[in-house]
Amino acid sequence: MFEMYEQNNSNHGLHFASVLVGVAAGIAGTILYAAYREKEFNQIVNKTREIGDKSTDYVGDVSHQIKDKANHLAETVRDKAVAVADKAESAVSSISKSVHDIAEKGQRALN
Predict the structure, then answer these.
(1) pTM
(2) Rounded distance, CA 5 to CA 22, Å?
(3) Dihedral pair phi/psi, residue 13, rounded to 5°
(4) 3-state secondary structure the chain
(5) pLDDT given for residue 9 in this prediction
(6) How far is CA 59 from CA 47, 66, 67, 100, in A?
(7) Phi-psi label, residue 105: left if phi above 0, alpha if psi -120 to 50, beta otherwise
(8) Distance CA 59, CA 47 (A)
(9) Cβ-Cβ contacts under 8 Å for 41 (sequence gap 6 or more)
(10) At what angle do helices 16-36 and 38-110 cross, to 10 degrees?
(11) Rounded to whole angstroms, how far apart are CA atoms 79 and 18?
(12) Which of 1, 6, 40, 41 could form a disulfide linkage to 34, CB 3.0–4.6 angstroms apart?
């Protein structure tokens, strides 16, 4: 019996005609439901639109929050980099002054 089933259905993939019939049946069913249950159909359509609008608003809010956090992070990194550069410049200046002072003392000691 299983062999007979395999012989009759040797192509296990989807057939275009089957897909077309399924899509047509779905469209026809939707049209019939919309025609005979117009109120319920409109409620479903309105609810779907409402959910779509809310999801669009949510995505917009999330993208704004991410943008704000990224800007804040960039500002913080920039501020820290400036502070580090200032400290490094101060340290180099201090070391340079110390080396200059030591050189002057050495020069005076030699004279």
Answers:
(1) 0.40
(2) 22
(3) -80, 175
(4) CHHHHHHHCCCCCCCHHHHHHHHHHHHHHHHHHHHHCHHHHHHHHHHHHHHHHHHHHHHHHHHHHHHHHHHHHHHHHHHHHHHHHHHHHHHHHHHHHHHHHHHHHHHHHHC
(5) 53
(6) 18, 10, 12, 61
(7) alpha
(8) 18
(9) 33, 34
(10) 110
(11) 64
(12) 41
Q: What is the pLDDT of residues 1-21, one digit of tens each?
A: 545 555 555 555 567 777 787
- CA 31/CA 80 separation, integer angstroms: 63
Asked if residues 41 and 34 have their Cβ atoms less than 8 Å apart, the reply is yes
pLDDT tens, residue by residue, 93-110: 888 888 888 878 777 777
Q: Which amino acid is at 41?
A: F
78 pLDDT more than 60 = yes
What residue type is assigned to position 35 of the chain? A
